[in-house]
C-alpha cells in the first residue's frame, strides 16, 4: 500500500450499498410481490368509494356541503371564502381533477390516521417502541420523496393506488410524532391523580391522555393533510390522476397555462383543507360555552327539535306519559 492509498483509501475501498439494496429489493419483488399486491385491495376499495362519492355528487351539492361544514365550524365568513374558492375551481374547468385529488388526499389521510395514532400512543407509552420508531421516522422524513417511487412501482405497479401508498409513506411521520408529543406533554399531576383514584391504563389513556393531547393530534393530522397534498405532483410521475397530472403534462409540453391551472387548483384546495382543519382545531376556543346545536346551520333546526320534544307526540310527551304511568302504579 503506497502513500496515495493511505491518504485516499476511498478510491479502492467502498461499501456496495447500492448493490445490496438492488439485490434485496429484487429478492422481495420475486418472493413477496403477490403479498404486496393483496395489500392494495383495501386501499383500492377506500379510494374507489371516495372517488365515486366526490365525482358522483353534483358540484352544486358538494359546494353547499362544504359551505355548511365551514359555517358550522367557524362561521359564515369562512363558509363564504370556501364557497368562493370552490366556485372558482369549477369555472376554471378543473372540478373533476380536483375531486380526484381530494379523494386521493382523503384516502391517504384516513389511512395515516388509523395507523399513525396507535403507533404514536405506543411510542409515547413505551421507551423501546419510541427507540425503534425514532430512526425509522427520521429516515422517512429526510429521504427525498422521489426515492419512494422506485420500490413502490416495483412492488405495487403504477396508478392511483400506488400513488396513495407513496403518499401514506411520505405523510405518516407527522401524525405519529405529534401524537407521541401530545401524550408525553400531559401533566404528571393529572396522571398521578387518576392513578391515585384507581384508574387503569386503558382509562388513563381514553379519559385523560387522549382528550388532553387532542389539539396536538389534530395538528398532526393537519400536517399529514398538507404533506399528502404536496405529494400529489410527485406521485403523478407514476400515472396518478388529478391536478398533479395536469401539472406534469404542462411541464412535459412546456404548456405554462396548463401547469399554472393545475397549480392554482392545488393552491386553492390546500387553502380550503387548511382552513377547515384550523377551524376544527380552534372551534372550542371560538365557541366556548356555546353548544354545537346552537350555532351555525344546526341552530336553524333547533326550534323544530325543541317543539318536537315538548309536543305530546314527541319525546317530551312520551317522557311525561311514562312519569304519569309510574305515579299511577305507585
Note down, in words, how this protein is organized.
The protein has 330 residues and is an all-alpha fold. It contains 16 helices and no strands. α6 packs across α8 and α8 packs antiparallel against α11. The chain starts with a helix and ends with a helix. The mean pLDDT is 83.
Short précis:
The protein has helices at residues 3-7, 17-56, 59-74, 76-91, 95-125, 127-142, 149-156, 160-184, 188-196, 201-212, 214-230, 232-235, 243-253, 256-286, 302-310, 315-329.
List keywords for this structure.
330 residues; mainly alpha; 80% helix; globular
Distance between the first and last residues' Cα: 106 Å
Largest sheet: none
What is the helix content? over 70%
Unreliable stretches (pLDDT < 50, length at least 5) are none
- What is the C-alpha radius of gyration, as a whole number of Å? 26 Å
Task: Determine the mean pLDDT.
Answer: 83
Oligomeric state, counting identical vs distinct chains? single chain
Shape: globular
Number of strands: 0
Taken in chain order, the helices and strands follow as: HHHHHHHHHHHHHHHH
Annotation field: number of helices:
16
User: What percent of residues are in strands?
Assistant: under 5%
SSE blueprint:
Elements: H1 3-7, H2 17-56, H3 59-74, H4 76-91, H5 95-125, H6 127-142, H7 149-156, H8 160-184, H9 188-196, H10 201-212, H11 214-230, H12 232-235, H13 243-253, H14 256-286, H15 302-310, H16 315-329
Helix pairs in contact: 2-5, 2-7, 2-8, 3-4, 3-14, 4-14, 5-6, 5-8, 5-11, 6-8, 7-8, 8-11, 11-14, 13-14
Amino acid at each position: 500500500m503506497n502513500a496515495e492509498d493511505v491518504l485516499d483509501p476511498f478510491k479502492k475501498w467502498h461499501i456496495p450499498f447500492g448493490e445490496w439494496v438492488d439485490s434485496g429489493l429484487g429478492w422481495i419483488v420475486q418472493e413477496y410481490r403477490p403479498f404486496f399486491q393483496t395489500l392494495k385491495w383495501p386501499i383500492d376499495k377506500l379510494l374507489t368509494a371516495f372517488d365515486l362519492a366526490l365525482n358522483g355528487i353534483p358540484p352544486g351539492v358538494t359546494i353547499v356541503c362544504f359551505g355548511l361544514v365551514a359555517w358550522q365550524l367557524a362561521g359564515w365568513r369562512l363558509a363564504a371564502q370556501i364557497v368562493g374558492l370552490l366556485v372558482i375551481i369549477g369555472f376554471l374547468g378543473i372540478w373533476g381533477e380536483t375531486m380526484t385529488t381530494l379523494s386521493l388526499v382523503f384516502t391517504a389521510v384516513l389511512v395515516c390516521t388509523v395507523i399513525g395514532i396507535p403507533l404514536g400512543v405506543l411510542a409515547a407509552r413505551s421507551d423501546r417502541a419510541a427507540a425503534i420508531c425514532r430512526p425509522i421516522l427520521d429516515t422517512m422524513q429526510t429521504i427525498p420523496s422521489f426515492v419512494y417511487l422506485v420500490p413502490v412501482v416495483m412492488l405495487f405497479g403504477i396508478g392511483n393506488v400506488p400513488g396513495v401508498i407513496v403518499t401514506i409513506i411520505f405523510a405518516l411521520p407527522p401524525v405519529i410524532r405529534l401524537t407521541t408529543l401530545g401524550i408525553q406533554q400531559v401533566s404528571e399531576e393529572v396522571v398521578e391523580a387518576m392513578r391515585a383514584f384507581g384508574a387503569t391504563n386503558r382509562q388513563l389513556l381514553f379519559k385523560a391522555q387522549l382528550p388532553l393531547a387532542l389539539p396536538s393530534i389534530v395538528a398532526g393530522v393537519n400536517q399529514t393533510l398538507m404533506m399528502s397534498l404536496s405529494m400529489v405532483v410527485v406521485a403523478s410521475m407514476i400515472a396518478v390522476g388529478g391536478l398533479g397530472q395536469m401539472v406534469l403534462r404542462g411541464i412535459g409540453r412546456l404548456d405554462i397555462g396548463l401547469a399554472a391551472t393545475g397549480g392554482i387548483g392545488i393552491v386553492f384546495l390546500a387553502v380550503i383543507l387548511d382552513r377547515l382543519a384550523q377551524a376544527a382545531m380552534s372551534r372550542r376556543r371560538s365557541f366556548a360555552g356555546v353548544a354545537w346545536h346552537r350555532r351555525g346551520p344546526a341552530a336553524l333546526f333547533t326550534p323544530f327539535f325543541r317543539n318536537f320534544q315538548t309536543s305530546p307526540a314527541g319525546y317530551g310527551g312520551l317522557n311525561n306519559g311514562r312519569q304519569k304511568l309510574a305515579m299511577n302504579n305507585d
